[in-house]
Amino acid sequence: MNVHLDLERLTYLAYGLLEPDEERKASTHVAGCAACAETARRLEAERGMVVEATQSPEPSTALIKKIKDIVQERSFAVRRARSLRIWGFSAAAGALVIITLAFVLRMNRIAEERAGINAGRVSVQRGDKWVNETKGYVPASGDRLKVDDSSGATLRLEEGSLFQLRQGSLVEFRGNRGPKAVLRLLAGEVHCNVVADPRPFSMEAEGATLTVVGTEFIVHVMEDPASFQPEERIPRPPKVSMRVISGTVIFSTGGGQIRVPAGWIALAGASGAPWLWGTEEEFQRLVNQAMGRAISQILGQTSKAVGLDPARDAAWRDRADDTVRELVAAVPWTNLAKALVQYHREMESAVKEQRTLRVEGDVKTDLEFGWGKVQALARELPVQGDFMLAGRNRLAATPFVEAVISALADGPLTEVQRRGLPVAELVDNLLPLIDPAAPALAKWKIRAERTLRFVRQMKGNLTEEQFGRLSQAVGPSWFMKEPDYKVWKVEGATVEEAADRVVRIWKEQFRLPPPVEAPLATIAAEHVRNHLAELKKFKPAQPGALAGLEELELSIHLLDLQAAAEKRIALIPSLADEPRKLVAAGSNSLIRIKVEEGK
Amino acid sequence: MESARSGIPEAWTELVRRFVKPVHALCLRFVRNGAEAEDACQEVFVRLIQGISQYERNGRFAPWLFRLAANVCRNHLRSSGRRREREVLTASIPEPVANPAVEAERRETVVNLKDIIDSLPELYSIPMWLKFQQGLTNEEISQVLELPSSSVRVVLFRALSMVRDRAYSGRQSS
Q1: Which residues touch B50 (CB under 8 Å, ≥6 apart)?
Q2: In angstroms, what separates the C-alpha of A117 from chain B's closest C-alpha?
Q3: Least C-beta-crowded within 10 Å: which of A101, A260, A451, A458?
Q4: How far apart are CA A112 and CA A106, in angstroms?
Q5: What Å distances lie between residue A67 and A571, B15, B19, CA to CA?
Q6: Any CB–CB contact under 8 A between A271 and chain B?
Q7: pLDDT-derived band at A284, boundaries 50, 70, 90
Q8: b/e string for A471-500 if b means 16 or more Cβ within 10 A?
């Protein structure tokens, strides 16, 4: 059965309103259906006319022109607005960036102006744990801050004071500036830059309190050494060191307080009053010397002793207040000087006779009593190092020098003699400043040379008789401490035998290995011969041993010879590093050699 | 189109040249008044300048523009608040080129059809114009006139049926 398409479908077909698949089916039908094909043909003719009939009239030329003009004008406006918008956006964006930047900077400024961690990272103690905090952290009163980073951290107070906490430091924040301490340094080092402010500033470190108004200083809390080795310049183990960079810091402990000016280093121990160690400049010089010694040791060269600058004790040398005056007056200078002469005479005898030192009776009493009084004076000044250096004080120098000369000359000086004494120069030679780190023999040589200079200074000031007694009373041990005055007595039938014994001393002293025996024997033999030659030069005019000034001069030459021999040992190529360092540091005893006549 | 978006005057001149006629025709079919159609046509292009940034590049421009024009015309009619005064759309009818007698009859038929189409409500006349003069798809017509897509074909069939009916009844009466 053939079903014709209705008019609607054929209309859709003729007017192109069917979907593609519908159009395909309808077209197929129309192609095979004459009636439908006829209707479709008529509809297509109709379509042509309908399309034609839907045409619209043309717009007027005036309208077209008017619209073109409007569009031209508006498009310019649009373009201008668009440009303005772009510029506006750019300007707004720029302004926004600037505002944001300003805001961020301001916030940073505000953050910086607040008290708190200004730079770096700290660990804050929270119970048993340590919590990391960075810039912006505001510590609360009682917070403990630890710094582990090598770059350290900076703590800022509200008023602008800055505290650079070094690596390894541990501080307790106490609160903002006021009557109470701001910080307590428990370990490590803090560089404090305190700005001027009406409120007081103070900090604590190991029992010491540092009070300032506006200054810059560095505080360091020292760890306890494994075994404290007292040296000349440091009388007791220090716990806190402070270096003032500008301004003045009042450094106080339970034992007293001192004002530390800019450029000075002060120390405080676990107890007692703080004391001035010396200047920053001096510290740097010592550091440089230490470095120089280390380099010299590496190179296998014997370092030389270096006398210290007399200006180093300027801080206490000029003290002439009542306290110092009383303490100087309390020293029994005459008795002490006499006892000292006896003490050194006994020391020379003991060495020559190779026996122990015997100091007894009045000598011992006078020494102990006198030394005690000098030590009290040294503590008050305060003197860093050997307490006898207190004799350099301007009030102590004159009684000290007069008493020593009188004791050595074995008689009182006249008024004229006393007035003619160049006290300042004499005291510098009697009590020279010697680098405590210098090799033992080098220090000994300096002291001997200064003693020799002292004796020569006295030649014109004393009578011949007095000078004779004085020159016989001094010797190589003069003002040497008993532990430092070490002499090896080597006796041999021949040069070789003596040299062999010298080799044994050096091997034991410097822990030299067997392979160096050959060059060591050569050096020892030469040293023995040089030593004997030197002895011949100092052959006593009268029978008997050398004494006094001659012995002193001889010892200076022998010290030089021994230092030269040790230097040669240090230069032995096959020597290992460790013994080379020992040799370079020098021995601590003078070898005195004796070979039988004619051998 | 991108040039026009950027405000380049030459691009706008070309846009006007290509679309002023269909936009004017559409406006005329909506408002059925020559003067008001011109006003509406101007407004369409002003609105086009202001709103061309809203045109999405993935669609055809003509349907989008016709929809804009339709909205302008509707607003125009709404704001004027009057009933449309019918005006005869005096489109020029092509001159006969072949058999004069046949062409004369055909021309007469076309004029007659034109009158009928112009007299149809815009719901019918405008889809016919969009379909047969602008070649829009049913989907595009539905977008312009905001009709359901499935209705366009039915609307067009009804329009053609009305045209046929009126043409047949006209012949009968003549």
Answers
A1: A74, A78
A2: 53
A3: A101
A4: 9
A5: 109, 11, 11
A6: no
A7: low
A8: bbbbbbbbbbeeeebbbeebebeebebbbb
Give the Cβ contact number of residue A417 at 10 Å: 18
| Predicted TM-score of the model (pTM) | 0.40
**DSSP string covering A163-223, please?**
EEEPTT-EEEE--SSSSS-SEEEEEEEEEEEEPP-SS-EEEEETTEEEEESSEEEEEEEPP
Nearest C-alpha in B relative to A51: B132
What is the model's pLDDT at position B89? 53
Nearest to B129 among A17, A56, A80 (CB): A56
Task: Please tell me the distance from the alpha carbon of residue A242 to that of residue A231, in angstroms, as a whole number.
Answer: 19
Choose among A589, A586, A531, A564: nearest CA to A351: A589
Displacement of CA A568 from its chain's centroid (Å) = 35
Report phi then psi at A198, rounded to 5.
-60, -30
Percent of chain A scored above 90 by pLDDT? 5
Residues in chain A: 599
Query: Is the distance from CB of A247 to CB of A212 less than 8 angstroms?
Result: yes
Across A545-563, average pLDDT: 80
Please report which helix (H) or strand (E) contains residue A400, including its range.
helix A394-409
**Strand residue runs (E) in A352-467:** none
Neighbouring CB atoms inside 10 A of A374's CB total: 26
Q: Band the pLDDT of A397: cuts 50, 70, 90.
A: very high
* Amino acid found at B54: Q
Alpha helix segments (H runs only) across B32-60: 34-51
* Residue A111 pLDDT level (bands cut at 50, 70, 90): low
Q: pLDDT, tens digit, for every residue of B16-53?
A: 888 889 999 999 888 888 888 888 898 888 888 887 77
Residue that has been written with the tokens 């008290």 in this structure: A115
Give the bridge partners for A491, in sequence order.
Answer: A594
Q: Which residues of B touch A68 (CB under 8 A)?
A: 13, 16
- Between the alpha carbon of residue A360 and those of residues A109, A363, A473, the distances in Å are 75, 6, 19
A44 touches chain B (CB under 8 A): no
Closest by CA to A153, choosing from A168, A131, A174, A175, is A168
Report, in this order, helix, strand and coil percent for chain A, each rounded to 5.
50, 20, 30
CA angle A581, A585, A590 (to 5 degrees): 130
C-alpha to C-alpha distances, A259 to A276, A507, A538, nearest whole angstrom:
9, 51, 53
Distance from CA of A101 to the nearest CA of B (A): 33
